[in-house]
Amino acid sequence: MKQKRRDRTLKTYTRLTTPLVRETPGDRTSPLRTATWDEALDAAAAGFAAARTDHGPDAFAMLSCSRATNEMNFVAQKFTRVVMGTNNVDSCNRTCHAPSVAGLSAVFGSGGGTSSYEEVEQTDLILMWGSNARFAHPIFFQHVLKGIRNGARLYAVDPRRTSTAEWAESWLGLNVGTDIPLAHAVAREIIAADLYNKAFVERATTGFEEFRALVEPWTLSLAEKVTGVPAAAIRQLAHAYATAERAQLCWTLGITEHHNGTDNVRALINLSLLTGHVGRYGAGVQPLRGQNNVQGGGDMGAIPNRLPGFQDLLDDGLRLKFERAWDAVIPSRYGMTLTDMFEAMEEGTLHAVYCVGENPAQSEADSEQAIRRLSALDHLVVQDIFLTKTAELADVVLPATASWAETDGTTTSSERRVQRVRAALAPPGEAREDIDIICAVASRLGHDWKYPDAETVWNELRSLSPDHFGMTYDRLAEHQGLQWPCPDTDELPSPYLHGRLWESDPGRRGRLAPFGLVEHDPPVDLTDEAFPIRLTTGRRLDSYNTGVQSSGFASPLRRGEYVELCPEDAERYGVVVGEEVRVSSRRGAVTAPVWVDPGLRPGLAFMTMHFPDEVDTNALTIEANCPIAGTAEFKASAIRIEKLDRAEQTEQAEQAEKLTVRG
Asked: How many CB atoms are located within 10 Å of the residue 217 CB?
C-alpha cells in the first residue's frame, strides 16, 4: 500500500534582527517590542545583577550552545564562573550524550570517542547499537558504507528495523530498555566460549572476576525471554564481535536517553574491554554526537563539573591555574546540570537564566512542565538567531549570528577533530556575534574583556588546556583539523586514544580501565492495560531537532509528524494511514496522523521531536533522569492510541487547514 503524505504548509521561524524587550518589564503577559542594543543589554545585565544580589550567585544559570563555536562556549562558561561566580553552566549535551561522557570518563578518564572516522572504513566489524546513523548521522554513515565496501560486517541492535539496519548482516530487534541484559548476554557468551582477550583483560582492566559473576546468570535463553532477541542471533553477534581482528562499537541516543543511560554506556564499553577492541587502530568505541559542536561545548568547560580542556574543577591545582589566569575565585563545587536547573526553577531557587542558542521549551521531556518552569523565572534572557518558543518566554531577546555561516571560530566533531569555521555571510540587520554580546553584558557587570577576534579567545583556551595547546589556527588550517589530545605544536596527534593500555610497562600503561558492574533496570514508565504501547523517539533524515532551523525548508522526504505503528497494530486499532488519532501518556496527550512502518514490531510506536508546533511529542515523554548524567528517558514512554469521534476528526481537519506560513 502506497502511503500518501498529507498536505502541509511550511512552518518557518522569524530571523531575529533587532533586540527585543518586554513592553512592561517583569510582566510576561505583555508583548515583546523592539529595543536598542543598549536598552536590551542594560536590561539583561540588570536582571542578572538583581538575581545575584538578592539570592546569591547560584541563583543564576547559563545554558550554552552545542551549535555555536568552541570560542563562544569558552566565553560563556567564563562569564558564568568569573562574572556571575557560579559553576551553573550546561547545554543540550545533558539532553543527549551526557551519559556517554560520564561512562567514557569513568572507564578511560576522558569523555571523547576513542577512534577516528577513518578507522570505521578500515575495521573488520561495525556494531551500531541504538543508532539509526543512516538518518541521524548521515555524514558518519558514509564512512560506515565505505567500511562495508571494504569488507566490514555490520550488525545493528535497535528496537526498530531502521534504514541503518537494512544495511546490516544481522539486525537484533530488542525490546526497548533491555540493552544491559543483551550486552551482558553477549559478554557471558564470549566468556563461556573462551573468546575473551585474556592478555588485555589481565594487563589493562580491573574488576573482571566481579564482572564475570555479574553476567553469569544472563544465559542466551534468559536473554531471549527478556530482550526478545533470538538466542541464536545473540550468540552470532558475540562470536563475530569477539573474533574480529578489529571492531568499532558505535552508539547514539538509543543508548543514552534512558533513566539509566550511563549504565547502558558502561555495559557497551565492557564488551570492548572484554575483547580488547579499544586502544588500537580500527578498534574502539564511538558515541556519535548529533550536533556540530556538542563535543566541543563540553571540551570548552560549558558543563558544571569541568573546566576547559575537560579538567576537573575540584582539583585544587587545576582550578588555581584558571583563577590566576582570570584573576577570579572559582567556586570549588560542581554547579547544576540542566536537569538540576529545571528542578531548581520548580523549587524557586533558580531565578535568572541566560539561554544561548537552546530551545528547552520544546526540547525538554514533559514539555508542558518545562514551559511552566521557564515562565516562573524572575529573569530569562535568550540569545538566538530565531524567535523560538523559548525566546517567546524571555524578558530580553538578543539577536545573534549563525555560527555555521556568519561566525569565525572552531568546532569539534565526534571524533575529537577540531576544525576551523569561517564567516561566509554578513549577519542580517543588527544581529551581533555571540562573543561580542556576552562581553557587552559582562562589561555592564564590571568585567571589561577585550577579544578582537575568535583567535584571541582560542589562544587563551590553548594556554589553559594542554590537550589543545598544539592546535594553532595555522595548524588547524594546514591539516584541515586536528584531533585532541594535541599537546605539541610540532607532532601530529594519534587518531585513536588509550593505546597506553597495550603497553607492557605498567608505568606507561597508566590508570587501568574498570569493568562496569551495572544491573538491568527496566524503563520507569511501565506499560499496562491503560497504556499498552511503548513509544520510542528519534530523528528523521530530512529534519533537525525541534525544527526551528529545518522546518521552513521544503524536502521531498518530509511528511510532518506522525505516530508510526506496525501494520498489525494499525489493524488492531482499526486505523488507517493519515487518520488522526489521540496519543496519550501519563503526562499529556496529542493528536497525530497515523503512519504505518513495517520496521516496527507489535506494541512499539515511534515519533520524533521535529514538529512540536504541529505535534508536541515531548508532551508525552517522561522526565525520568539518569542519576549520574541527568539525561531524561526520551526513549521509553508508555502510551495508548485512541480513535477520534466524528466531531473531533472535523475539528482536527479544520485546524490543519488553518496552518499558515509564518515569517
From this structure: 12
CA gap 38, 500 in Å, rounded: 54
Name which of 29-38, 376-385, 448-457, 549-558 the model is least confident about.
Answer: 549-558
Could you give the CA distance from residue 505 to residue 507 in angstroms, rounded to a whole number? 5
Torsion angle of alpha carbons 53, 54, 55, 56, nearest 10°? 10
Residue with cell 524503563: 523
Task: For residues 234 and 238, give the distance between their C-alpha atoms in angstroms, rounded to a whole number.
Answer: 6
- The DSSP result for 302-335, as a single string, is -BTTEETTTEETT-HHHHHHHHHHHTSPPPSS--
**Alpha helices (H) in 465-533, listed in sequence order:** 473-478, 506-509
Answer for the pair 398, 42: CB distance below 8 angstroms, yes or no. no
Place of cell 523592539: 34
Q: Report the predicted TM-score, pTM, of the whole model to 2 decimal places.
A: 0.93
Q: Write out the DSSP string of 173-240.
A: -PPTT-HHHHHHHHHHHHHHTT-S-HHHHHHHEE-HHHHHHHHTT--HHHHHHHH---HHHHHHHHHH
Instruction: For residues 497 and 113, give the distance between their C-alpha atoms in angstroms, rounded to a whole number.
Output: 8
- What is the Cα–Cα distance from 314 to 424, expressed in whole angstroms? 40
Contact call for residues 220 and 235 (beta carbons, < 8 A)? yes
Q: Return d(Cα 402, Cα 398) in angstroms, integer.
A: 13
